[in-house]
Target: Fructose-bisphosphate aldolase
Amino acid sequence: MPESTKNNLTLRILRAASNGGYGILAQSCYDTQSVLGLIEAAEEAKSPAIAQLFPVTMQQFGIHFTSFVIQACHAAKVPIAVHVDHAGTDEDIDRVLDWAEQGVAVDSIMIDCSHHDSDEDNIAMAKPYCQRATKLGMAVEVELGRLAGGEEGVRVIEEGALTKPEKAERFLTELDVDLLAPSIGNIHGRYVSPPSFRLDLLDKLQSTVGPGTASNALIVLHGTDDLKDELFRDCVARGCVKINVNSWARNPQVEYLRDHLGKDGLPEVYDGAKAEFARACSRFFTLFGSVNKSNLEV
Ligand SMILES: [Zn+2]
Model:
């Protein structure tokens, strides 16, 4: 682990989870309601958590909103880190790092160069950014292999897109980062056929690059729409410590807004939408086993 990220909040939360055998909800937040809903639910459950922002949200609402998210999460009664998910273009990555240099620093960032044609290109593109982020004290997540999904019609994982443990080892050594998002049969967006995860590959990744190995990496699970509770539990048991969740909390919030806007007063609508979001977060704290784990030293 690079010296500059030794006290990094995302890593402190995830290392404690890894040692304790539980998972951490990394929840996508799109607005003030969702950020505050996540914080309220985490405080209620006495659970650590990670608030995730997409680059589009940072661009949309700007540096002052991002500053608010960081301040609100860091002021919570439980440890809540702020992470940027899927920063994949120069513009998106530069924005995060430039703002950090201006004093608005998130705790961690996913530098996602997995769309490049080869692993070599992936590494070459990601490396300078990984170094710059690490210098700023940010933890870095990278993706190796390629997750399908996100585009209509692309829903099948080909064998070649799965993450190879030996490649992961080289990749992590080259980039010197702590968080790995592998491709194990997970898909972004809706699963057309029931999810079929290569849990054996997850075991192999854990033993090749996971905690206690030279890479000492922490595994991140993407593509969690539609997963059954059982599969979530299996993944946590196999060392997925950061579990990215998007639509499970976003959809109830959006549905609430759709049903109540124009009928109820705006403050009441916001309260209701925030409560829907918080309810979904609470379920995951229980499912991932992170309730009452807010004291990271335990
Ligand atoms: Zn993802």
